[in-house]
Amino acid sequence: MDGMEDRLASLEAALKDSLRSSLELLPWHTFSASAVSRHLAKEVIECSRKDQEGRSYAPDQYTLSIHPRETGELQRSPPEVQKQLASDLRKVLKEFGFLVAKEPHITLATDPTLSMGEIRVIAWHSSDPLEFTEEQKTPLVETAEQPPLNAFLVVEGKRHFPLDKETISIGRLPSNDLILNDPHVSRRHAQLKSSENGFIINDLKSTAGTFVNRRRVKKHRLRPGDVISIAKVELIYGEDPGGPPEVTPPYAPPFKPPSDRHKVTPLDLKTIPQEDTKALNNLE
Fold first, then answer.
1. pLDDT computed for residue 261 by the predictor
2. Which range among 101-105, 164-168, 186-190, 217-221 shows the weakest confidence by mean pLDDT?
3. Which residues does 125 contact at the CB level (< 8 Å), separation at least 6?
4. Under a CB-based contact definition with an 8 Å cutoff, are residues 190 and 201 in contact?
5. According to the model, what pLDDT value does residue 82 have?
6. C-alpha closest to that of 237 among 127, 158, 169, 152
């Protein structure tokens, strides 16, 4: 136990030194280097997986959450800060002998269930690192294959939506499988279709477009960790034999919204006032 505690303390200290300069770029001080490094180190140690050769794979997906009021009037987190944080984390993980199946991705988010001044860090693997192999470039072939086992989307930062059908429709109409109640989302916006190599996302000639990792796409094969942007809604694609992280509650359609205290929102999203949602169905 002492050896594990020493390793945790060493990892925490290394993360604190590495992340301090990146965290200072944020215009608020809740993300202190000490607090973030402590939570990150704990998640890395607890969520890492070892292969048959004893090599440790660290998680590659991380969400850092604070209470919405802690951000002041900030509506968008600088994307370069998240990239720098991920880069700093990658360097420390490498120094400590950790491997990652994919490049780390860090999302900064707000969570009204947290107390003022409280920080929550959640880490998970976007794919099974023990089965990780070099990805081969293959053509986009759509076949009537069964969906990848335990594929899912993380909706708006936290809530998961299982991809357990061959075809998943995404849009604003209630008839869609995944309903996104945002005025900029088309009635039938995009479609996910299983193929021999995973899910492929197709844009259905939407008005706002469909973006994957900030690039507009018409058709794109998804890989674990890809960030899909539909209007102002972010969806993270994942495949994990163990399923989505246990801490993420199932996705609930927006026309039957949960209470605000259960809502978790990435910093670059804006919530829609409840009184304005009645007009959404009249758009398009």
1. 38
2. 101-105
3. 47, 49, 57, 59, 60, 61, 101, 240
4. yes
5. 79
6. 152
